[in-house]
Structures are given as structure tokens and as C-alpha cells.
Amino acid sequence: MWTKRSGDNPRIKLLLLHGGPGCTSEYFECFDSYLPQAGIEYYHYDQLGSQRSSQPDIPELWEIERFVDEVEQVRVALGLDASNFFLLGHSWGGILAIEYALRHQQHLKGLIVSNMMASIPAYNRYAESVLMPDIPPAVLAEIKAIEAARDYDNPRYMELLIPHHYEHHVLRMPHAQWPDPVVRAFAHLNPKIYIPMQGPSELGGSGKLLNWDRMNDLPKITVPTLTIGAAHDTMDPLHMAAMARAFPRGRHLHCPNGSHMAMYDDQVTYVSGLLDFLQDVGSAARG
After folding, report:
1. What is the DSSP string of 218-256?
2. Which residues are catalytic?
3. Quick count: other Cβ atoms within 10 Å of Cβ 18?
4. For the chain, where are the E strands, in sequence order?
5. How far apart are CA 236 and CA 7, in angstroms?
6. Which residues of the chain does CATH 3.40.50.1820 include?
7. What order do you get walking across the sheet with 85-90 strand by strand?
8. What are the two backbone dihedrals, phi and then psi, of residue 113, each rounded to the nearest 5 degrees?
9. b/e per residue 87-123 (b: at least 16 CB within 10 A)
10. Is the CATH number of domain 2-122+209-282 3.40.50.1820?
């Protein structure tokens, strides 16, 4: 497993869980401009199968339970514990963070679920009712025809998705201007993990995660938890706010100008809210 530590803070040690599954932690490089100045100790970490970690071609490895075990092994190796361990999961990393907390919250001081709903069925309903109608009907029909033919390698697929979906709901800036860390992270995505778990469609989940739903289990997570949502996200911002209410010690951060990559397109709101949470919870005794 590839990890990289930055900073030194005995009270606040933040482990970053990237999205995908099968993406990389490269897009978290935006935090390098903020977290060191705030005195936060944090860890970039590529999950198994991702760019800078080992990439075994063993399909049975790509299961939620094994990824949770992996995070626990990384925690132990890094020497993180309940006095200082904060876990931030973005997108798929949010699923992993929730699952980790449900099994190992005794080791956590705080949890951050960023831009990820607690239910893939609810996400799919949101995609059907909000995201797809936001695409011009003729364009959506062509996208769905490509998906129906399972012709996902067709260059026309991304030609349609980038201007009509990605630039609206994934990262709200012209694709040609996307920051280099984001471009590298997407370029390095491992489809041998992403497709079996998430599914090949960019407009909903259809893989092993299809029926994943932990909304009713959120009250079991009693550590301080921050949910981060964004107005233009692929994830329903109202659902993200409801998640915060479901956690016994939940808080919510809304990014009014952000999308799925709100750490880039609503950066000041995102980072300032994250730092407020880390410093507030980090200064308190766990309990």
C-alpha cells in the first residue's frame, strides 16, 4: 500500500480515502495548499489496485469487506488511534468510510463523508429524476443508446458526457481547464475495479454496489461526523443534509457553488468547513 504523510500533529491525523473504486489519491493534492498551513497531519493513500499501490488482477479482492480490512491494516501500520484518527472518504471513499466506522468506530476520533449518499438506490433515483433530465433529450437518448449497446469504449460516449454531465455535476469548469491532479486521477482509474463495483455507466450505479444502503444504520455511528454536500453534485444535496441529521453527532457542510469535486470548484467553502471540523473535534477529548 502506498501512503504519504504530510505534517506532524499528535491530535489530528487525517487519512484520505479516494473515490472510484479504483481511482487514486492524486486529486487530494489540492489539500497540500491548505492543510500544512493549518497544522494538520494527513495521509495520502492509494487503495489496493490503484495507481501507486500494488495492482493485483484478482477479481475476488474487490469487495467492500476486504477494502474495510485494508483500511484497518493501514490504520494500524500508521499508528493512528481514537485520540487522533480522522477518516475522510470522498465519493466511493465515503462508502468505505461509513463501512469502516460501522465496524471500527472505536478507533476513530472523527469521520468525514464527502460527496457520497448513504444509499446507492437513492442515488440511482436521484440520477433518474434530476441528473438525466438536466441533459438535453436528444443527447440523453444517444447516451442511453450507447449504454444499451454496452459500447462504453465508443469515444462518442465521453464526447457527450463531458459537456453535458461532467462539466455540470462532476467539476464545474471547462474540461480543458481541469486541474492536473484531477486529470491524472481520472486517467489512472483502474476499470478492473471500477466496472465490477460501480458499473460502467456514468449516470448511476449498477455493479456490486447496486443495492448498498446504510441510511438506516447511520445512527449506530456515534463519533462526530461531518457530511459534505454540494448544490450541483452528482449526489443529492438534500440527502447529504439528512445524513448529518441521522448521525447522533452529525454536522453538515453545504457547498453552494460546488459539484462532486467541490474541493476544487467551491474550494474555500469546502476547505474552511473541513478545517473548522477538524480543529473543533481535534481540540476536544474523545467521548
Report:
1. GGG--S-EEEEEETT-SS-HHHHHHHHHHSTTEEEEEET
2. 91, 233, 260
3. 26
4. 2-6, 13-17, 41-46, 85-90, 110-114, 225-230, 250-255
5. 34
6. 2-122+209-282
7. 2-6, 41-46, 13-17, 85-90, 110-114, 225-230, 250-255
8. -110, 110
9. bbbbbbbbbbbbbbbeebbebbbbbbbbbbbbbbebb
10. yes
| Cβ-contact 258, 232 below 8 angstroms | yes
Q: How many CB atoms lie within 10 A of CB 37?
A: 10
Q: 121 is written with which cell numbers?
A: 438506490
39-62 tens-digit pLDDT: 999 999 999 999 999 999 999 999
Q: Note the pLDDT tens digit of each residue in 87-103.
A: 999 999 999 999 999 99
CB hemisphere CA count around 105 (13 angstroms): 18
- Cell numbers 499508528 correspond to what residue? 79
